[in-house]
Amino acid sequence: SMLRSLARRTSTAGTRRGFASESAPDRKVAILGAAGGIGQPLSLLMKLNPLVSRLALYDIAGTPGVAADVSHINTRSEILGYAGEEQLGKALEGADVVIIPAGVPRKPGMTRDDLFNINAGIVKSLCTAIAKYCPHALVNVISNPVNSTVPIASEVFKKAGTYDEKRLFGVTTLDVVRAKTFYAGKAKVNVADVIVPVVGGHAGVTILPLFSQATPSANLSSEEIEALTKRTQDGGTEVVEAKAGKGSATLSMAYAGAIFADACLKGLNGVPDVVECSFVQSTVTDLPFFASKVRLGKNGVEEVLGLGALSDYEKEGLEALKPELKSSIEKGIKFAHA
Ligand code: NAD
Ligand code: LMR
């Protein structure tokens, strides 16, 4: 709907009529890793979002070019480019939402956990700076393995005394985007109408789409549901293999990241009934972090929603994912303490 409203606005170029941003509050968004495969298209999409008034693009290298390029787009936000660690504080100061797609992506044959050794340290240092420069920002963690990097972020914030579980999110929107696309294809329904919750975590079997709750409903066989579930769980790997060494999903991830950040901004702005799935601190299961539907509000998480009724197949999937998710969470917590 963001892109639809953008198209509408473009078609009335030159008039200011219906330009929602004139009444929208000032909001600063910072993207850390803005010059990367996800960072660049995400910077573009956030520049198109009329809820953003300042967009800070930070990376360890390459940001001046990306920032100059994006800054020529005639939309509301002012673009601020920052390169190198000594500019990280300036990038973060005053941010309402920080999006983190910094870190290395997978190559064929790797699991997301194989990225831990490099990305854990990157997320730890970026979150240390967030605690210092914008402790009240909503933090959207994209860097993999999300099942571990979100617990790392929580421990960094706890240590700094700034942790608020309402403001920390693992971005699992791409799993929802995929589940919607694959379901619409199989169920032969309009993809724009589809709603499917995806719960659990963001790696392999920990990704649990709840197709029994999908709407519009369709009479899919258990074989079809199983195939859709597997394809959603392996969606990342499908892209990694197709890119054959050139990285993982970037464009679909940028889209998903932009949708989730837009939901965070709407929540901050007091728009009612903003609900997205996200990997957050949770009491929905016995695990300390879990992805489920979350209602977003002026303070971030307003309510973590329960799982609803599950099919037997989904109940089995839920039990099967817990050991892996538990150990990935514990690995992150242990790293942050070391
Ligand atoms: P990329 O290599 O193209 O870009 C990563 C960027 O991060 C680079 O520009 C790099 O310079 C930057 N970077 C590295 N260290 C940094 C630091 N300390 N501070 C700031 N920037 C830093 O990778 P990509 O394809 O954009 O993927 C980025 C991450 O997102 C990977 O970990 C990938 O696995 C993950 N990812 C997550 C999802 C998800 O659904 N959550 C989806 C796709 C990718
Ligand atoms: C994805 O789901 O596409 C990302 O987590 C990237 C990956 O490594 O699969």
UniProtKB/TrEMBL annotation:
Give the signal peptide, or none: none
Where along the chain is composition biased (Low complexity)?
Answer: 4-18
What reaction(s) does this enzyme catalyze?
(S)-malate + NAD(+) = oxaloacetate + NADH + H(+)
Pfam families attached here?
Ldh_1_C, Ldh_1_N
Instruction: One GO cellular component term, please give it.
Output: mitochondrion
UniProt entry keywords in alphabetical sequence: NAD, Oxidoreductase, Tricarboxylic acid cycle
Q: Where is the Lactate/malate dehydrogenase N-terminal domain?
A: 28-170
List the molecular function annotations (GO) for this entry: L-malate dehydrogenase (NAD+) activity
E.C. designation(s): 1.1.1.37
The domain of life is Eukaryota
Top-level EC class as recorded in UniProt: oxidoreductase
Q: Quote the record's binding site residues for substrate.
A: 106, 112, 144, 178
The segments labelled Disordered in the record are: 1-21
Q: Does the keyword Oxidoreductase apply?
A: yes
Q: Name one GO biological process term.
A: tricarboxylic acid cycle
Domain Lactate/malate dehydrogenase C-terminal intervals: 172-335
Q: Which residues bind NAD(+)?
A: 33-39, 59, 119, 142-144, 253
Subunit and partners: Homodimer.
This protein is called Malate dehydrogenase
